[in-house]
Fold this protein.
Amino acid sequence: AHAQDPAQATRVGVAVVDTFVWQSLASVAIPGVTINRLCAASLALLGALTRWPPPLRRWTTTALGLAAIPLIITPIDRTVDFLMDSSLRKLYKVPGEPPAPH
């Protein structure tokens, strides 16, 4: 479909790579690490500061991790936008978003 317009094929390829990298960072890698570390820290703190039984500490840790999700979405998204604008997106000179389809 894009064989007749190499520029269009390039724009599509750039958009695919940009979207894949952004989603990988903003939806998988960074939230996963953030929630994992939050849960690890909360479990350690609950173990040190309470006498709650281990199952209650684990369930509380799970609840804290789930409760953190809405709070971390916007900061992570904005950070990934900034990081990509400062690095990868400079390669194709379109700050903020992948090239718009025509």
In short: The mean pLDDT is 90. The radius of gyration is 20 Å.
